[in-house]
Give the backbone structure.
Amino acid sequence: MSEKSDQPFCGSQSIAERERLLIEPYAVHSTHTKGRKYPEAKQEYRGPFQRDRDRIIHTAAYRRLSHKTQVFTNEAGDYHRNRLTHTLEVCSIARTIARALRINEDLVEAMALMHDLGHPPFGHSGEDVLAECLENEGGFSHNQHALRIVEVLETRYPGFPGLNLSRETLEGQQYRAAKHNETHSPSLEAQVVDAADSIAYDSHDADDALELGLLDVEQLQEIPIWQRAMKKVNEGDDLSPTAMRRAVVHELIDKQVEDLLHTSASNIQKHQPESAEEVKTLSPLVGHSESIAAQKKELESFLLRKVYRHASVMEVRDNAQQALRELFQSLQNNPDLLPPSFKGRADEMGLRRTICDYLAGMTDRFTWREHARLCGN
């Protein structure tokens, strides 16, 4: 056994030294953090982005993701992804990429765990309804609502509203919320989370659709990126249909990650940014090759036509949207039906926004229960 060191524990110094040794100058370093809106004392044993990660994990909003739709509702079965398992898969892929690119894994993890925190019940179907309800009051987007959750709605600490996350973690989500209007790039860490999200849902939505019988393998064989993965898998032993499907999905993820790493490393080498701030002045450096980007776009178009607009998915979508509309109308007609914690917010934030805050926090199953209770069917 090694002897116990007589050196005192110096957590913050060891975190800084670890980052100096393991991540590149163009990554976001904890020692360069811009801090938090409400100043807090540093912790010796956790860096700022580790604290952000832990605060996100301990929120009610994060726990509720386990009962929120990714693409398919819980009634369809137990195999497919929900919003929480999707989040964890994005986090896993993002950390793998971050480590390979030698950027800040802790910040990537915090951003990945936060990226879908603002999703309402029923996924994008619910988001469309809430956007419709707030059309003349700023609209609704799950990316923007995630910021609202961590800055306003989660009240877990006595000294400040929200979670008081580091500015770097918030900046990643702010870029997601306004990406179509941005004129600069986010940190490499934020770029990696966006890429990991795309890799995850391209692969796993196809997997779930096959498991549920909405697609068959023959249909997907028309898609070049799937063909390529299947050809590689077929080079090995004979597999059962289920084992084949899973192997192809694994290969699909692996090839996307491999291509992303090769292309991104080449971009970084070409531009040689010397700091995280310089990264923001450049075009995005994390991305796929033109070939894989085109193949991914073709797969996404196929999934839109064949899965997201499948008759059975659309039927569930229509029913869920109608329930949300009726709930919104019922609460608008009778605000006293709102829970006490939300009634007090209406005067400050407006009734319609407050109702949307309440509805967005619901899980799928709680939405149906409240619909039955308040709308009488």
Remarks:
- Residues 241-271 form the longest helix (31 residues).
- Residues 243 and 249 are 10 Å apart (CA to CA).
